[in-house]
Specification:
heterodimer, A: mainly alpha, MetI-like fold, 2 domains, two-stranded antiparallel sheet, 12 helices, B: mainly alpha, 14 helices
Chain lengths: 308, 279
């Protein structure tokens, strides 16, 4: 696009062209680019380099290059494999319910009923609640002294007696998942609602004239139209949830006995509590690699199955 | 859908669903409020009852006057407002560039911005700590402002771009014909029209900065400069049975977010679909 004539008479025009097509846009962009480079991209490269070093702030002394030692340690670290398994449960457990409830809410909001605007504001509110507060509130709800949930769960027979599931290694992960569902439903509802509203209403009218049932118009019109949006939203959301450490870190700290430790909380506790920056970075690179593989696989699947 | 109006069973199902979503969204917040107004001596007997038999504002008084929460609140307010303001100004520039120019390297810049939204932010928590320590900025609010600003620029840029895209290009072309420079046209013609967009961006970034906790934990260890989340977590680990006070503090933390939420909820669809990756 920079193919311009540089014939002698055209230098002024050329200068103006360079100004308005190259220099001027970058004037508007420079502050953003400088900050992103300094605070995100350079630390990203530095972080990758940390994964080949031994850097422990608690053991003063020069950082040294240890080649692949951290990765070898990672391979034989049982905690890493436990975290990986928990990451899958956490991510897909949260995602399934967030998506189902979010889709239901979007469909509901796509119809008409009294006081809809107020309803919409209220059901979207959990999205605005600070995550640390979501985490604390749900941790309290699961506490048998001040929270109702253990008593309700015992009353309907899910728990033998009202105890705190956050202290039970078999059940603890469902605590943060519940909090995450509460927090994440609005996001899915909003994105899916935007997609729903872009479906031309003539399609539904035509289907109704042709005698289609509500269920038929849902599966034959709504779902195919939503499919591309669902694919991209689910992919981005998976990555986001897998990276999302706040809720688990605050509610259980990864315990009891690492039963809720996911990769991102493992990274954070390694960096924050142990101050072992080398190994934390190795874990982070592993997580990044896994997410990358996931995205590539999903994009390939999408190209094959969703035609649009 | 027209079908719902005719079939009474479907209508009933719809109102049941409305009720379900309402209680699911509100119940945890109701509980937070309920415990915060339950008097201390009733917590253990009525902690799990749906209504307290007595209500008091004592917990709020204690939290505000006898603890450090007011300072935490203030620190968080400074950090979040500063990050939101700086981010919005910088992102407005970048979003404007994306909306109005086609320039060499544009695809690369967009790809870089998207990349920053995809990788685990925890990857850079160690390098950031080292850099901030090297600059001697540990425990300072300015380091948090800088970090939050940079984190939110990509999302805010895409959001601002979507607002600029909605304003006809003819407007500034006309202003430039009349002798304005592009920057003057932007400042006098375009920005006033984007005010709601600027406000929405401000709100999104404020909400994000207000709730960030992991980097704040890492970079701030002294009580003087703790933000609200960090102060609250420290408080919880120290006084884990002062339920009423903790929840009163929680209710206070909710106020600014709710205010901004009321303001930005009209723009939620645009914000979440244009950024697409931001929760």
């Amino acid at each position: 696009m920079t193919q311009v004539s540089t014939a002698p008479g055209a230098t002024r025009a050329h200068q103006r062209f360079v100004w308005s097509h190259v220099i001027e846009p970058y004037l508007y962009l420079t502050p953003a680019l400088v900050l992103i480079a300094l605070v995100m991209l350079i630390p990203l490269v530095v972080g990758v380099s940390y994964s080949f070093q031994s850097i422990m702030l608690l053991k003063p002394g020069q950082a040294e290059w240890v080649a692949l030692d951290n990765y070898v340690a990672l391979w034989s670290d049982t905690k890493f494999w436990i975290s990986l398994e928990n990451t899958l449960v956490w991510t897909f457990g949260s995602l399934f319910f967030q998506f189902t409830l979010g889709l239901g809410l979007a469909l509901l909001l796509n119809t008409q009923f009294p006081l809809k605007r107020l309803f919409q504001a209220i059901v979207f509110l959990p999205w605005a609640v600070p995550t640390f507060l979501t985490a604390l509130t749900w941790a309290w709800l699961f506490n048998p002294v001040i929270g109702p949930l253990p008593h309700w769960l015992a009353a309907i027979g899910v728990l033998p007696e009202p105890f705190n599931i956050l202290g039970d290694p078999d059940l603890a992960i469902w605590g943060p998942i519940a909090a995450n569902i509460w927090f994440g439903v609005p996001f899915f509802a909003i994105t899916l609602l935007a997609a729903l509203q872009s479906i031309p209403s003539e399609l539904y009218e035509a289907a109704e004239i042709d005698g289609a049932s509500a269920w038929q118009s849902f599966t034959k019109i709504t779902l195919p139209f939503l499919a591309p949006m669902i694919a991209i939203t689910v992919m981005l959301r998976t990555i986001w949830i897998a990276n999302f450490a706040d809720l688990i870190f605050i509610m259980t700290g990864g315990g009891p006995a690492n039963s809720t430790q996911i990769l991102s909380t493992y990274i954070f506790t390694t960096a924050f509590k142990k101050l072992d920056f080398g190994y934390a970075s190795t874990l982070a690179v592993a997580l990044l690699f896994l997410l990358f593989v996931y995205a590539v696989v999903l994009l390939a699947l999408r190209r094959r199955f969703v035609r649009l | 859908m027209a079908v719902a109006r005719r079939n009474p069973l479907l209508t009933l199902g719809k109102y049941a669903a409305i009720l379900f979503y309402l209680s699911f969204a509100l119940f945890p917040l109701y509980w937070l409020l309920k415990i915060s107004i339950t008097p201390d001596q009733l917590i253990y007997t009525e902690g799990t009852a749906l209504w307290p038999t007595d209500a008091t504002l004592e917990n709020f008084g204690k939290v505000i006057w006898q603890t450090d929460f007011l300072r935490f609140f203030w620190n968080s307010l400074i950090v979040s407002l500063a990050a939101a303001a700086i981010t919005t100004v910088i992102a407005a520039g970048a979003g404007y560039a994306f909306s109005r120019f086609r320039f060499p390297g544009q695809k690369l810049v967009i790809a870089l911005m998207l990349l920053t939204q995809m990788f685990p932010l925890l990857m850079i928590i160690a390098p950031i700590y080292k850099i901030v320590a090297m600059l001697g900025l540990l425990n300072s609010l300015s380091s948090l402002i800088l970090v939050y600003t940079a984190f939110n620029i990509p999302f805010a840029t895409f959001l601002m771009q979507s607002f600029f895209d909605g304003i006809p290009k003819d407007l500034e072309d006309a202003a430039m014909m009349d002798g304005c420079t592009r920057f003057q046209a932007l400042r006098k013609v375009i920005l006033p029209l984007t005010l709601p967009g600027l406000g929405a961006t401000l709100g999104f970034i404020f909400t994000a900065a207000w709730s960030e906790v992991l980097f704040a934990l890492m970079l701030i260890r002294s009580e003087d400069s703790m933000t609200f989340p960090v102060g609250m977590l420290t408080f919880v680990s120290k006084f884990s049975v002062d339920w009423g006070q903790m929840m009163a503090a929680g209710v206070l933390a909710l106020i600014p977010s709710c205010l901004f939420f009321i303001f930005i909820q009209r723009y939620l669809v645009q914000g979440l679909t244009s950024g697409a990756v931001k929760g």
